[in-house]
């Protein structure tokens, strides 16, 4: 009888941890927002999205304003098409840039929005035309070592 009680308690603990993990991941990825219209999408096309995945932060002035919600390869242009989902209420000028930046030498990558000066803002579904892809640290080091950087 004591074994059954112990197994039941351990099983309940495992289920509680799994439920907590699912709740946490749904909040981090934005799935838990309930579709209440608290965000709007922008499209961007990058030469390289190395280090960026679905769920990567989108930041403006170092503050998280959204996430990357989709990444696909465009077979016509051979570029990576990204969907950036931004919080409602944050109006980005329509001449802004989207740059893949690094948190540091050993940090991860994120998408940084560099605001422009236009008085007009992006509408939901618009495309950010000014983009800069990820810079590969390995290729930079190889250029430095081989002297190919001239």
Question: What does this 3D model show about the protein?
Answer:
Residues 32-36 have low confidence and may be disordered. With 150 residues, the protein is an alpha/beta fold. An eight-stranded mixed beta sheet has the order 7-1-4-3-2-6-5-8, with no helix packed on it. The chain has helices at 2-29, 137-146, and strands spanning 39-46, 57-60, 63-74, 79-87, 97-102, 109-114, 127-128, 130-132. 25% of the residues lie in helices and 33% in strands. The chain is built from two helices and eight strands. Strand 5 and strand 6 (109-114) form a beta hairpin. It has two domains: 2-31; 37-143, no CATH class. This is Putative phospholipid ABC transporter-binding protein MlaD. It comes from Pseudoruegeria aquimaris. Residues 39-116 form the Mce/MlaD domain.
Primary descriptors:
single chain, 150 residues, alpha/beta, 2 domains, eight-stranded mixed sheet, 2 helices, 8 strands, extended, MlaD_Phospholipid_Transporter, Mce/MlaD
Provide the residue-averaged pLDDT.
82
Instruction: State the order of secondary-structure elements, H for helix, E for strand.
Output: HEEEEEEEEH
Shape: extended
Low-confidence runs: 32-36
Q: Assembly type of the shown chains?
A: single chain
What is the fold's blueprint, element by element?
Blueprint: H1 2-29, E1 39-46, E2 57-60, E3 63-74, E4 79-87, E5 97-102, E6 109-114, E7 127-128, E8 130-132, H2 137-146
Parallel strand pairs: 1-7, 2-6, 5-8
Antiparallel strand pairs: 1-4, 2-3, 3-4, 5-6
């Amino acid at each position: 009888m004591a074994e059954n009680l112990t197994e039941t308690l351990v099983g309940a603990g495992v289920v509680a941890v799994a439920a907590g993990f699912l709740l946490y991941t749904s909040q981090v990825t934005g799935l838990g927002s309930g579709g209440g219209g608290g965000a709007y999408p922008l499209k961007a096309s990058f030469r390289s999205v190395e280090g960026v995945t679905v769920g990567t932060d989108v930041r403006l002035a170092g503050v998280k304003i959204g996430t990357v919600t989709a990444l696909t390869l465009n077979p016509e242009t051979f570029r990576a098409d990204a969907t950036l989902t931004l919080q409602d209420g944050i109006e980005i000028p329509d001449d802004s840039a989207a740059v893949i930046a690094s948190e540091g030498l050993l940090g991860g990558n994120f998408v940084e929005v560099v605001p422009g000066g236009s008085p007009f803002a992006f509408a939901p579904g618009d495309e950010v035309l000014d983009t800069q892809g990820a810079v590969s640290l390995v290729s930079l080091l190889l250029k430095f070592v081989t002297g190919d950087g001239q």
